[in-house]
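Good morning C.,

I know you're traveling, so I'll keep this short. The sequence:
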Amino acid sequence: MSVAEIIVSVLVVLATLMVVTTAVAMWRAPDALTRVNLMGPVVGVAFPLLVVCKLIIDVSTTGFDPNNFVRALLAIAGVWIVGSVGSYYMGRSIYGVTVVDVLHEEERAYRQGTETV
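The C-alpha cells, ready to paste straight into the viewer:
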C-alpha cells in the first residue's frame, strides 16, 4: 500500500465519519430548521474531501492532469455555491413556516377582534 493510498484511506474514513455523525445529528434534531443547518459539514467538508481523495489517487496512479484538477476545483466550488444558496433558501422557507412571531400574532388577533365588533 502506497503513501497516497494510506492518506486517501484516512481522508475517506474521516469524510465517512462526518457523514454518519451528521446523519445521527439530523435524526436527533428537534426541528426542520436545525436539520437544514446540520448539512453544513457534509456539504462544506466531507464532499470536498472525497473529491480531493479522488484527485490524489489519480495523481498517484496516472500523474498530474490539469483537466482533472480544474474539474475538481469546479466541483468543490460548485457544491459550496449550490449548497450555501440551497441551504439559505430552505432555511428561509422553513423559518417562515415554523417560527411564530408573537408580536405579529397579537396584532393580527387584535385587528381581527376589532373588525368583528
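Safe travels,
E.
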